[in-house]
Amino acid sequence: MLAAIGVGSLDELFADIPESLRLDRPIDLPDGLSEQEVFDELSRLAARNRHAEDEITFVGGGMYDHYVPAVVDTLVSRSEFLTPYTPYQPEVSQGGLQVMFEFQTAISELTGLPVSNASVYEGPSACAAAAYMAKLETRRSRIVTSRGLHPHSRAAIRTHAAGYGMDVVETPLNGGGATDLDALAAAIDDDTAAVFVQQPNFLGTVEELGDLLATGKDRGALAVCAADPLPLGILKPPGELGADICVGEGQTLGNRLDFGGPSFGFFAAAERFIRRMPGRIAGETRDLDGRRGFVLTLQTREQHIRREKATHNICTAQALNALAGVVYLSWLGKRGLVEMAELMLRRTHYAREALGLPLINPGPVVREFAVRVPDLDDFMRRARAEGINPGYRLARDYPEYEDGLLVAITERRTKDHIDRLAALSARAREQVAA
Amino acid sequence: MSRDTVTIFERSREGRRAFTAPRDDVPQVPVKELLPASAIRERPAELPEVSEPELVRHYTTLSSKNFHLDEGFYPLGSCTMKHNPKLHERVAALPGHAKLHPLQEPEYAQGALCLMFRLQQALSEIAGLPHVSLQPSAGSHGELTGLLLTRAYHEERGERRTKVLTPDTAHGTNPATVTMAGYEAVKVGTADDGGVDLEDLRAKASEDVACLMLTNPNTLGLFDRNIEEIAHIVHDAGATLYYDGANLNAVMGITRPGDMGFDIVHFNLHKTFTQPHGGGGPGAGPIACSDRIEPFLPVPQVVERSGANGSRDPFFDLDFDRPKSIGKLRGFQGNFGVFVRTYAYIRSLGGDGLADVSAVAVLNANYLKARLAEDGIGEHLPIAFDRTCMHEFVLSGRGAKEKLGVRTLDIAKRMLDHRVHPPTVYFPLLVDEALMIEPTETETKERLDHFADVVREILEEAAEDPEVARTAPHTTPVRRLDEAGAAKRPAVRWRPYDENPGDPERAREAPASGSGAM
């Protein structure tokens, strides 16, 4: 090969790199290992993590311990889906492109909005992408978010907005753990580009979504709803309640916990925003012979065509995770999604009653609820000792709920699991009574 | 309509299902007693109703319509389509990784945090920069993080800078990132040797400039010999120097961005470090940076605390107490599943192995470049900048267009009939009819020779009858698609009442489909 190139040594190929910049020693990393040794090392590391089958977990806060069906694993591990690049050559990428089209259709159905892209990174950065789209659309410089929006979403909006130059204003929750409608409305001015709320909100409260989404309409602000897609099986779709944009975290749809990623984010919007959307969009078309086919469409929005005038810089997104999402939704099916959402709704309410602790959000909840636990440290310790992870300490993100515990329910948390958690809270209930 | 091209929604039949709900073991309270009427969905989402066998067949059939890396040669320039070791899927799927909740207390996630900490150390060593954040979700997210860090750095110094320089060879993500980060993108020209035009850079490196974003080797596959001078110019202007790591596969263990003078680097773990591309993600785009940038890194950082809890073992923790941090780019700690694969790759190869990867990647590219310069090919597809290349190189299809009457697009489409994936085409923009070829270290000499033979065959065929290439592909599940029609009347979701959205007459005139890099 060197002879064909016309050089005498491999080293000559690097002649353009100045001597002064050459690394004059090997990279300082441990020596390579055999496959078996790498497997053993990774297995040892993995064994030091307490995962969702090692304990009964009631931890949620944006990602949830759902059952991932075998059919998802089987299909997403196929090399044909796992190893291609983004479908730049549509004639040999019809599988991936059709998956995107089907994914977009499913997200459109869930959110009640006609246009979805083919995925963004994940939930919180999807909120930041929505804020950026609102800026491009309205040319305004202010974002208003409810404190019910996931703390990571609020943080991601703030971080990104520091770049594109927007102020972010946060409005409080009311005494019942729902968005304070008056405070939200009062925060919206004529320079407000978008208003963000979440359904259900971070505490699991089912928000009065229609009222919240209407608050900014007369001031010309876009209404953005972040949503968990599974409860949307029974909750009114944000698009029907006036949302201009609906974004969210897709982990709950057939994706693993993976210590936080990769999962996918979704981004759906009203028709008039189709040319301002971020990310890939697949569209249906015909080939030269009139056969049905799919392509990446409206690419003039995108960075590889429009460069500095692009609507977003996103390139690699989460195609494989979105595939898991649409396979999962097809596995659940039209009726299964409703059954799943109803199951979660009933168990959430059952658990809240069974625990019998003071409620932070006493109104309707789904998938999650927040309670006050006297001597939370002691409760956590006792629960852990019994192999139960009872929930997420709210004070990490909400100092105002100092003794708050956020308890998440999935279809994997049975009545028996819930009853065991309730039995543990007996001492806490007594402390409340005293 | 082709029998195969049916969406999952059209396969739906009322009452079919794959899912059986777990036993609903709590009291059967009606939904309307638990939710206000205003919140309840009136009509179920129209998801498909299919049996499990039909579900499996549908997506298996779709999968068969994808060309993929496990099937054959995939020389997409700047995309680094290298083999995805199968071990990585196995270790990423270990329950301790796959079923670990991101809000698990650090004390119960020591394996994951240890892995992340060690990966930070390894990436730091590879980049030659002391600090790493694993958080960004992909390369472009890493770029954005880099510019947000740059902004925070300058703001702390009381400086307000408004421009960011990007060479005209830059990936499209660079200028798009500049705009998103609130800066004005200013283009820097390319010199005759394919490197940055130093005169142009000097003229534009004013006090308004916050950063120069550079890929080295650049998208032409050329190492910029003036990189030290470039770093001087940029730093003298008080700007930061940002390294787009998309092309890092060329230089691992040979030279390091930090040693070249870069302040911030992103890694594409889905390029250089074998995370499978998944048909468009997931990826991950960690960044490395110098000491002066470190205070602004995102939260949380993975840190090692020795002697915690009175123990002699190191304790790995998430550090949120970073007052100057730019904040969070996304939820939780980043794409951990990608970190597991990257870590497995680095452990498999070790330091020497990584250097070998780059050496072989560069060898393969230069060998294929030489093969494609042979008589019968080279005159039709001349090299854009005739120098020793690094991991990739760019040919121009102008010879073929003028002498054979076939465009780069036609050549690319004809490759599909030979079951090789075409290179990146029509990028970089400054090369007429560009083909950007990156073979990676994965390929054997036989694979490279086969590709050269395919290119020769296509050109010889075009000399005889250019129409074959112009109407290619002929053997794929579909032929050329009407992209203009798709964009004009977008049909982006299935509807039962959709009519034929595309016009087959226009497919032939479609613009450079498949163009665009990365």
Description:
- The complex is a heterodimer of chains A (about 425) and B (about 525).
- Chain A has helices spanning about 1-5, 35-45, 70-75, 80, 95-110, 125-140, 150-165, 180-185, 210-215, 305, 320-355, 375-385, 415-425, 425-434; strands spanning about 55, 115, 140-145, 165-170, 190-200, 220-225, 245-250, 265-270, 280-285, 290-295, 370, 390, 390-395, 405-410.
- Chain A is α/β, with parallel strands linked by helices and about 425 residues long.
- A seven-stranded mixed sheet of chain A has the order 2-8-7-6-5-3-4, with helices on both faces.
- The termini of chain A are far apart.
- Chain A has 14 helices and 14 strands.
- With about 525 residues, chain B is of the alpha/beta class.
- Chain B folds into three domains: about 1-65, no CATH class; about 140-265 and about 285-335, Aspartate Aminotransferase, domain 2 (3-Layer(aba) Sandwich); about 355-505, Aspartate Aminotransferase, domain 1, CATH 3.90.1150.
- Chain B is about 35% helix and about 10% strand.
- Chain B has 17 helices and twelve strands.
- Chain B has a seven-stranded mixed sheet, sandwiched between helices. In chain B, strands 10-12-11 form a three-stranded antiparallel sheet, with helices on one face.
- The longest helix of chain B has about 35 residues, at about 335-370.
- The two termini of chain B are about 30 Å apart.
